[in-house]
Amino acid sequence: MTRFLSIFTLFVLFTGVSAQVKPDADVIRVDTQLVDVPIAVSSPAGVPLKGLKATNFVVYEDGKKQETVDFSTTSEPFEVALLLDTSGSTRNDLQLIQRAARDFIASLRPGDRVALIGFDTERRNDQAFAVSNVLCPLTSDRDQLNSAIDRLKTSNGTPYYDALLQTIEKVFRDKPKEEFRGRRALVALTDGVDSTSASDFAEAKQDLGQAGIISFFIKVDTREFFEQSLLGDCQYAIRFSNAQIKRYYRSLGVKGNVEQAANFCQLGDFERLAISKKLYEIADGEMADLAKSSGGKVFPVADLGGARNAFRSVADEIGTKYTLGYYPTNEKKDGTYRKIRVELVGLPKDTVVRSREGYTAPAN
Predict the structure, then answer these.
(1) Which of 84, 200, 243, 266 is most buried, by the most CB atoms less than 10 A from its CB?
(2) b or e along 241-267 (b: 16 or more beta carbons within 10 Å of the residue's beta carbon)?
(3) Nearest 5°: phi and psi at 26?
(4) What average pLDDT score do residues 65-74 get?
(5) How many CB atoms are closer than 10 A to CB 26?
(6) CA-CA distance, 241 to 255, in Å (whole number)?
(7) In angstroms, rounded to a whole number, what is the distance separating the alpha carbons of residues 285 and 356?
């Protein structure tokens, strides 16, 4: 009998199957995906509430109550992908961005791990183009991170969507260790207006949502700077990229080619401002969408001078997140989207809770 138990234990460890033993029953779940739900709880004034227990939460999937089988308190560590947008108006404030990033990293807890993603300009066949790079993989080594921040450069475009995908494909490519499961976050300093990416927002949103990444955005208002450079003599003005023109006309329901992109000089100032306004509206909506669906938050700042305080707020959020896990009662592998709702128990009615809003079930 002892030999049989030993063989079974080795089988569970080496097959990579996720197993969870219920506290009050000898039931092992080996064929159901464990769903992690990051949660933030605060008072109406925005003060994070600490010291809560698993019994303070009830989770529902598509309206059906689920059994919590795993719970992490706010003291557990986080893994963070820090994305710093150094394009557009921010190119003149690189040192300000670097100082804010250093302060953010210093304000995290010793066990938290951080990776750094930045932009750069590369040249190929006498053509300059913007790229996003992982400057430092996940690490808790603050010296290594600060050295990566020193290497941060500027770009002549904004490959923002590509950088979001790199968060999944490179930074969070491997499954998290147990202490970081359900506790991974994207923290992006950006205006969210993409100009040069090969990928699109829908692809990035799907991958981030599927991985359960919590998204925080420090939204820098660059619209005034951009529009000042957009107007006047078209020979010297900042031009929209083809990707931005496509995005604008797609938002209006226009299909087909984008001949308008080649005729920037024929656009009057009013038309240029209309396109710019729509691009910023799209960016604002995308950031709000990612933050809300993941249980994260958007922190608007008027300029980079406010980024340091916003980073501190993000660090406070990360340090006060709970995570619960459950095995869905709906075990179908049908690729459908499942809605998640978290209720609080034993807390005042005006207590605020934010959590992951759903996930897509695996498909056969």
Answers:
(1) 84
(2) bebbbbbbbeeeeeeeebebbeebeeb
(3) -85, 60
(4) 90
(5) 6
(6) 17
(7) 17
